[in-house]
Amino acid sequence: MPINYYVILAMSLFSIGVVGVLTRRNAIIIFMCIELMLNAVNLLLVAFSKMHYANLAGGSATANVGTEAQLFVFFIMVVAAAEVSVGLAIIVMMYRNIHSVDVNFLNRLKH
Amino acid sequence: MNLILISAIWGIVMMFSGLFVKDKSQAKNIAIGGALLLLIVNLLDVKGISIFHSDFGGMLSYDLFGYIFLTLVSVSLLVYFLLSGKEIQQVGNHPFEYFALIFFIMSGIGLVSFFNNLLILFLGIEIISIPLYILTGSDKRNLKSNEAALKYFLMGSFSTGIMLLGIAFLYGAAGSFQLAQFQYAGDKEGLFLILGMVFVLISLAFKVSAAPFHFWTPDVYDGAPTVFTSFMATIVKVAFFVAYVNLFLNAFEGSKLKWQLAVAVVTALTLFIGNITAVYQQSVKRMLAYSSIAQAGFMLLAVFTINDMARQGLLLYTVAYCFATIGIFAVLSKMKDFTFDGFNGLASKEPLLAAVLTVFLLSLAGIPLTAGFFAKYFMLAAAVKAGTYLWLVIFAVLMAAVSVYYYFRVITAMYFKEGEGQVIETTASFRYVLLFAAVVIVLLGVFPNQLLLDWLNLG
Predict the structure, then answer these.
(1) If 0-12 CB within 10 Å is exposed, 13-18 middle and 19+ buried, where does residue A16 land?
(2) Residue range B330-354, pLDDT digits in tens
């Protein structure tokens, strides 16, 4: 299957994420959209990894071509988990103070 | 390598001290010890003595520029702890953890100044960003701090997503994450490379608060506890710039013609928006937030030109900008009133403090005989040397002239306006450190080559 399909799929997922971040007002939904963006990137990386493997595996001793992108995906997942723990803590902290997770409440800093 | 290891270890030491040391006011002293240790081990590294040395299969590449930058950052960190350590302890109930997070950030700064692989760039930027989200929201009962933390977190992880998309496209173009691979990938997979470059450029512009991606900066800097704003606006910002310059120098120098116009437009916009909006601010803290955007515009000139002169200018900028801004914020965090009127009549009550603040503000404005002048001079000279886009240089000089207005507003408030002046309680050591920072700025303004830049040429 040509790489274009994967690129289009990943870009659509990414765009859904971006649109969600820009239009939704619930902090948790915004956060889910950001996760969607990260996972779209994971998909793209895995697809590129396979593409480079298919392009180069015909030669000799190139069996490990493309593995580094798959490793990168693991790092993204780990970092995303760290971000989730911090982000949810921040959202909970805000909920305790204003009893809402609506980002429209966040306008006290605008003068 | 020393600094990366020791700062991570010292962060853990700080966390355990929080468990075992009962006296909370000791946190500051342990942190100052750690900052001193970081400075020493980094100087040892410059001399070639390291505890553990590995380049992890070419993922890190060590150069003298990075070492000198980290030395300057360690000195700034020491000055920051000495000046603001007490305020950091008073932010909340967990003083040891705040210092621990700052040490973890230092480890990330070590990574971004030596990276040679996009994976390390990504990890370094995340190691810097995630603790910063926590520090921004550390004043838990304060709604402004909560709001700033959430805004910073959403903006930060959004830009991380964009950066990852860029990295994925770059990988698609070159088939590797090593920076050197992108120098030659120009003609193979043109579209992927350009898309990747655009996304990485945008996300790093978010991180260094360059216009038009600066909108979160004033709110976040205003809402965060003042001591942490000081850290974010200085050390962290300069570290992001080093990452930016390293990336463009090592990966994209070959395709300079493709991105130079985009960076020039971003630079001009940043200079314009930062300086013009700073003029209208009533609060000094918010003015400093916009001034940090304006200074980011000048630092972007180093990204734009990426030659040796610009890198030297970036080092000078590190000292001039970090010392001056940390000093001003340290005084500001001891004041109750953050407006310009709060500074009225300060000179008659606290002559030394007012004089030192004047040196800092003059340096930020780029007046000769201060380090800030040479920092700006090197940036502009590098841009002239690059040859193209002379309009950008002229525009930058004009904007520097605008910046004089809002920096001098503070000076005129201190010297020429009547007012009660606020009570600022300072200790003798606070004054000495502040004086030391001012002396360094003046000395660097008189002998920039002898003190700093010759070191770079020796290596």
Answers:
(1) middle
(2) 988 888 778 888 888 888 888 888 8
Chain A, 65-104: which have a CB under 8 Å from a chain B CB? 65-66, 68-69, 71-72, 75-76, 79, 82-83, 86-87, 89-91, 93-94, 97-98, 103
**Greatest Cα pair distance in chain B:** 68
- Residue B297 · residue B50 · CB < 8 Å: no
Residue B327 burial class via C-beta count within 10 angstroms: exposed 0-12, middle 13-18, buried 19 and up:
buried
Evaluate the CA torsion angle B388, B262, B456, B393 in order and state its sign.
positive
By the 10 Å C-beta count (0-12 exposed, 13-18 middle, 19+ buried), B278 is classed as buried
CA-only gyration radius of chain B, Å: 21
Is B198 in the A-facing interface, judged by CB distances under 8 Å? no
Beta bridge partner(s), residue B339: B283
CA B179 – CA A13 distance, rounded (Å):
27
Whether residue B19 lies within 8 A of chain A, CB to CB, comes out as no
- At position A54, the amino acid (one-letter code) is A
The whole-angstrom separation of Cα B155 and Cα B198 is 18
**pLDDT tens column, B383-421:** 998 877 889 999 999 999 999 999 999 999 888 888 776
> Would the pTM count as exceeding 0.90?
yes
Q: Which helix (H) or strand (E) holds B428?
A: helix B428-446
| Cis previous bond, B131, omega within 30 | no
* Residue B325 and residue B387 in contact, taking contact as beta carbons nearer than 8 Å: no
Distances (CA, A) of A3 to A44, A48, A66: 9, 8, 14
Looking at the complex, report in whole angstroms how far the Cα of residue B205 sits from the nearest Cα belonging to chain A: 17
The span from the CA of B347 to the CA of B410, in Å, is: 11
Tell me which H or E stretch contains A87: helix A67-98
Radius of gyration for chain A, computed over Cα atoms and rounded to the nearest angstrom: 19
The beta-strand segments (E) located in B58-180 are none
State the complex-level ipTM. 0.94
Average pLDDT over residues B237-242: 95
